[in-house]
């Protein structure tokens, strides 16, 4: 392994460890504060689980264990596809919940999981992936991410998902245009804040995926840029950090965390009966010192 390639793998390990720590911290917060009972938070948790899968699979040193190379790239392919689909599902959730004002039931949640997982699993199997999968994980100037994004499957899925997101955004924009200026109600402000928060998750997913999109196109046309190896791998490995940053910026999350830690704070209080007991013991203490 060349020095430059070692530096790239070291960057991958460092960013992945940061992402894993952030993802685990997010799940712990949701478990402690009971935030997992909120539907939108559960969607974020599903995305976080995908980030954890991405981080764990990127830590495999396939430059040593080359027999693990096909497994690494297939799982990475699955995780990347599911993240892109979740980006579109977040906007669909915002459109359905806020614009159409439909109730998000368990049936919808199961459908979301099926939409995110089943296509990602199918498209990561051998019939749907390039033949060069698993041949050059860290060989020469290659990375596991390079082969995954340099495929027509990734490029087509990203394009279709982006068009779907654009359609949801137009629907949301048209809905908010119905509110006339000067008549913005409290309902309007609350809905707008929710839309902005949910939209940020989709935005960060598609911005990082857009870097991979450009990276894949350049590799496919033979315009490989070594600097893009570092940029693309760093952005994809840090997906957990981006997720928890948006998660902690939510006022609902901040309020829940504040309430939880306040309830856990131990306040030392002296009760009236404790004061009486202490007073009754005082003469005995003085008699012990009289000698």
TrEMBL record:
Membrane topology (UniProt): Multi-pass membrane protein
Biological process annotations from GO: adenylate cyclase-activating G protein-coupled receptor signaling pathway
Top-level taxon: Eukaryota
GO terms, molecular function: G protein-coupled receptor activity
Main location: membrane
Spans through the membrane: 6-31, 43-63, 75-96, 108-129, 149-176, 197-218, 230-248
GO cellular component, one term: plasma membrane
UniProt keyword annotation of Signal present: no
Location of the protein in the cell: Membrane
Name listed for the protein in its UniProt record: G-protein coupled receptors family 2 profile 2 domain-containing protein
Biological classification of the source: Eukaryota, Sar, Alveolata, Ciliophora, Postciliodesmatophora
